[in-house]
Amino acid sequence: MNQLNQLYGTSLALLTDLYQLTMAYGYWKNGLAERESVFHLFFRKNPFGGGHSVACGLATAIDFLNNFRFHADDLSYLKTLRGSDANPLFDPEFLDYLRDLNFECDIDAIPEGTTVYPHEPLARVTGPILQCQLIETPLLNILNFQTLIATKAARVCIAADGDRVVEFGLRRAQGIDGGLAASRAAFIGGSGGTSNVLAGKLYDIPVVGTHAHSWVMTFDEEQEAFDRYADAMPNNCVFLVDTYDTLEGVRKAVQTGRRLRDIGHKMLGIRLDSGDLAWLSIEARKILDEAGFVDTQIVASNDLDERLIVSLKQQGARIDTWGIGTKLVTAFDQPALGGVYKLGAIRGDNGEWQYRLKLSEQAIKISNPGILQVRRFSGSTEHRADMIYDVRSSIHLDRPVTMVDPADETRRRTFDHGDSSYDLLVPVFRRGECVYDPPSIRSIRDTVQQQLSQTPASVKRFEFPHNYPVGLEQSLHDLKSSMIREARLKP
Ligand SMILES: Nc1ncnc2c1ncn2[C@@H]1O[C@H](COP(=O)(O)OP(=O)(O)OP(=O)(O)O)[C@@H](O)[C@H]1O
Ligand SMILES: O=P(O)(O)OC[C@H]1O[C@H](OP(=O)(O)OP(=O)(O)O)[C@H](O)[C@@H]1O
Ligand SMILES: O=C(O)c1cccnc1
């Protein structure tokens, strides 16, 4: 059984906005349900004021789509829906159509863990317009959130600069799936483990845990609390030392650490959860080192995020492991990615593709027409630029290709066949069948690190990051410009 089904039962087909179903009904009524169309899912701005994002959520989307069908109880529910008067919202024959519907779209998507940028499609969905439309909302729900959290986790790990990061967010996450999906995406983005045990089981993420203040408060004396914990689990001792007086707590942990040593075990760490984490970690390190506990790690938690980590490091904090909860799993400073799903092309009555775009007052918000792919140009060590192109335009990679900056058409770059390049979108579904074998979560996590190592430092920096170049292949840019002119001339 797949992971979503394990959690939610057999059917998630109703996990969509009602307007997808009202449009589906409209397509069906108008004989357009099967009309082939192409949609692109993309976002317009990197989150957190950053210069890059990390694609995440594809395996969850595959899970969802592998089980995409309307079950009898879904249809019974839809039957109960009424229009503004007493009439049913949907004809019974439409519900029969939904009952017999087999998912048959093609999907091409950028593999999880890839660094991605504004305007490039993370996924391209091709198929009957009714089906493309029904899956818009769940695809956005899954890819927006996991991409957001994987990006946040990657930023936290960049700040931690090789130190271990663990995710403690479940208690403050946005509900049950918010917690589970965040734990998955945080691990992919680089955290080393989660406190979320169900996420550990479902997604094969290492689970980690210390103890809470309540443990210390259960006993009359802090020393007794540490000793009893050590008796119970001598091989997993990370003592939370800040319940009363933090440095006194460290000294007591040292006492218990000596008892552990006498029975052949190690005190793995102490955890700081309040106060001045820079100063306390420096002082705690001295106490531990002087007592010979040089390997005992210092874990810190308390509303941390990537900027606080940078600041604490600048202050000389001696923290080995960063426990990050609320601000990671809720993407505290930017709670949504803002990814959208736009129609790029639809077959006309004559079977020919007709390209479509959505106009906007802001040029940068005008969607890209066509059937799009992304080509990444890469130097020997770093990614150089991504070019969005139409798969039907015959760009020849044995000849120079030019891409145009959509924000300023005077800025262009030309690449020739000497530049190594590859397409980012890979086949995931063909006629509704999954043709992609998702990598293990650990291998996706490795991909993130490998991708980040090829992302220019100027793009990864937190303050005023460089814009990574993403352009439109010249003929696509020219086509888009003429379509905009034409659309603006329409009465
Ligand atoms: N040296 C530091 N520099 C910058 N921020 C810090 C430093 N030490 C701790 N912080 C952060 O300051 C914030 C507030 O900590 P503060 O000491 O006010 O409350 P607290 O320690 O949580 O208090 P309480 O005892 O109520 O838990 C937290 O997000 C914490 O991570
Ligand atoms: O600060 P976050 O980044 O969200 O990390 C999770 C927090 O959850 C716990 O606190 P809580 O007060 O809930 O319980 P406790 O008594 O175990 O400290 C833990 O001690 C962290 O402070
Ligand atoms: O194990 C921990 O230390 C932990 C778990 C959840 C939340 N905060 C801390």
From TrEMBL:
Transiently phosphorylated on a His residue during the reaction cycle. Phosphorylation strongly increases the affinity for substrates and increases the rate of nicotinate D-ribonucleotide production. Dephosphorylation regenerates the low-affinity form of the enzyme, leading to product release. Its EC number is 6.3.4.21. One of its GO terms (molecular function) is nicotinate phosphoribosyltransferase activity. Pfam families: NAPRTase, NAPRTase_C, NAPRTase_N. Residues 375-480 form the Nicotinate phosphoribosyltransferase C-terminal domain. The keyword Chaperone does not apply. InterPro entries: Aldolase_TIM, N/Namide_PRibTrfase, NAPRTase_C, NAPRTase_N, Nic_PRibTrfase-Fam, Nic_PRibTrfase_pncB, Nicotinate_pribotase-like_C. GO terms for biological process: NAD+ biosynthetic process via the salvage pathway. It comes from the Bacteria. Transmembrane segments: none annotated. Residues 14-144 form the Nicotinate phosphoribosyltransferase N-terminal domain. It catalyses: 5-phospho-alpha-D-ribose 1-diphosphate + nicotinate + ATP + H2O = nicotinate beta-D-ribonucleotide + ADP + phosphate + diphosphate. GO terms for cellular component: cytosol. Pathway: Cofactor biosynthesis; NAD(+) biosynthesis; nicotinate D-ribonucleotide from nicotinate: step 1/1. Residues 166-343 form the Nicotinate/nicotinamide phosphoribosyltransferase domain. Gene3D superfamilies: Aldolase class I, nicotinate phosphoribosyltransferase. Keywords: Glycosyltransferase, Ligase, Phosphoprotein, Pyridine nucleotide biosynthesis, Transferase. Catalyzes the first step in the biosynthesis of NAD from nicotinic acid, the ATP-dependent synthesis of beta-nicotinate D-ribonucleotide from nicotinate and 5-phospho-D-ribose 1-phosphate. This is Nicotinate phosphoribosyltransferase. The gene is pncB2.
